[in-house]
Specification:
heterodimer; A: alpha/beta; Rossmann fold; five-stranded parallel sheet; 5 helices; 5 strands; B: alpha/beta; Heat Shock Protein 90; 2 domains; 50% helix; elongated
Chain lengths: 143, 347
């Protein structure tokens, strides 16, 4: 079952899961992404993100995940490990306020699609998401 | 394993409580291996006598009676009185040495010089500590900064008044958050003056240190801070220097735990001392390093994460406040630093 939940075509531009513990950050991302035509699902920590992506099989299909690193409870690294194992076709973009070169290298080596640092330029963020989305669609069509 | 930093002490009597005597008293009371056992001056209102009384040191106007009563290894005479000098030679106990005249002046000059160097070293260590804190703080600012830049971009196109108001509120909130973070660092970076002695409540100092050095860790990592504060009397000292001590110890504890663990801070008092412990659940300190951790430039941290000055200055500041710092650590079971400071209040 390589694609699990992600077999149905996603409405609109695609659906993005935002995992970040800060309300304000999620608000900015939600505004930016919905304006760009994306559908947004939010989670305020890694555990919720895992719950969200696994909830309601048919309704929820996530095309791209934007994930913070330093979060309480289940942190970003743990959540990303889970996402990559369970949903290898869904690109993960890291968006962190605490850049760490070692961590960035490690995560990129592990197949994270992009590593962005807050405060990220909105255009750069949208560009990265568009690329990740195209990558995701290409993978979908391959199968 | 316990490392005690106590050393054998030299018992000193200071004769003369004017400017020179006061400076020596200050130096000796901060020195780890010197105990001032008495001070005398013909003028009962001499400034040095007042300070000595506050420090609990016996004072008198009768120098000869003092040297007869109090066993001393060294009598430092900065009275400049040749008559007293001659009497001292006659009346001093056989095992006591006398330091007077130019020799005493020389000691005083060296004391001043040492003090200047010490101030510079403390400042250097503080700057290094600020460097570490600043890189953390720069990151801490990124989140609210992103809220500000992100919402501002949306504001450009927004026309609905209620939405604009909502965005502006969030922007103000984020700006204030950044201001708070910067203000904490500024308060710490302020250059301290060693003359600024006051009564310091160590419970407050610990709270400040946690705010500065562990806030991020408690907010986003799995680090829990447990406080077990006793109702402790204030200690006499330099508030900035004592804050530096605890910022250093808390920073080390947080770094040692690498994102996961419990930091336990406690205070208690007994026998005229306040005891403060900073306990982490990190990997502990290897036995071979225990004797070195207070040495200058000893560090096990990665390049750029530590200078090896922190604990050296911690010990220096604590000793100069008349206290002691000890460490207990078992490999695999964390480390506990205990700072013991005397309760000495300004009347």
């Amino acid at each position: 079952m390589p694609w699990g939940l992600h077999t149905k075509d996603t409405p609109g531009q695609g659906r993005i899961l935002i995992v970040d513990d800060e309300d304000d950050i999620r608000k900015v991302l939600r505004l930016t992404l919905t304006k760009a035509g994306y559908d947004v699902v939010e989670a305020d920590h890694g555990g919720k993100g895992i719950e969200a992506i696994g909830a309601d099989d048919n309704a929820l299909m996530v095309d791209v995940i934007i994930c913070d690193i330093r979060m309480p409870k289940i942190n970003g690294v743990e959540a990303i490990t889970f996402f990559q194992r369970q949903y290898p076709s869904v690109p993960v973009i890291v968006l962190t306020g605490y850049p760490d070169q070692k961590m960035a290298t490690e995560l990129l080596n592990r197949g994270v699609y992009d590593y962005l640092v807050k405060p990220v330029d909105q255009d750069k963020l949208l560009e990265s998401i568009a690329e990740a989305m195209a990558h995701r669609l290409a993978l979908k069509h391959d199968h | 394993m316990r490392v005690d930093l106590a050393r054998s002490t030299i018992r000193v009597i200071i004769l003369g409580a004017g400017k020179g005597g006061t400076a020596l008293l200050e130096l000796f009371t901060r020195s780890p291996d010197v105990e001032v056992v008495g001070m005398a001056d013909l003028n009962p209102d001499a400034p040095g006598l007042r300070l000595a009384k506050n420090l609990g040191i016996p004072t008198t106007t009768d120098a000869l009676a003092l040297i007869a009563e109090r066993r001393a290894d060294l009598i430092v005479d900065v009275t400049g009185d040749p008559k007293l000098g001659a009497q001292l030679v006659q009346h001093k106990p056989p095992r006591a040495e006398i330091l007077g005249g130019k020799a005493a002046l020389l000691i005083w000059k060296l004391a001043q010089h040492e003090q200047d160097l010490r101030d510079q070293l403390i400042q250097a260590a503080k700057l290094a500590c600020i460097g570490t804190l600043a890189s953390g703080i720069a990151h801490e600012i990124n989140n609210p900064l992103y809220t500000i830049t992100g919402l501002s971009e949306h504001l450009r196109e927004e026309t609905r008044p209620e939405v604009i108001r909502d965005f502006v509120e969030d922007i103000i909130k984020s700006g204030r958050r950044i201001a708070d973070i910067v203000q904490d660092l500024n308060a710490f970076a302020r250059r301290s003056h060693r003359e600024e002695q006051c009564n310091v409540n160590l419970n407050h100092t610990l709270d400040e240190a946690v705010k500065m050095a562990a806030r991020r860790a408690t907010m986003v990592d799995q680090i829990k801070v447990v406080t077990q504060y006793g109702d402790v009397p204030p200690v006499r000292g330099n508030a900035d220097e004592l804050l530096q001590v605890f910022v250093n110890l808390v920073t080390n504890a947080v770094q040692a735990m690498e994102g996961q663990g419990t930091l336990t801070l406690s205070t208690s008092s007994a026998n005229g001392f306040v005891f403060t412990t900073i306990k982490d659940t990190g990997p502990g300190i290897p036995y071979n390093n225990l004797n070195q951790i207070f040495d200058p430039f000893f560090t096990t941290k990665e390049q750029g994460k530590g200078t090896g000055l922190g604990l050296h200055i911690v010990r220096d500041i604590v000793i100069q406040h008349g206290g002691r710092v000890t460490v207990d650590s078992t490999l695999g079971q964390g480390a506990t630093f205990t700072v013991k400071l005397p309760v000495l209040q300004i009347p």
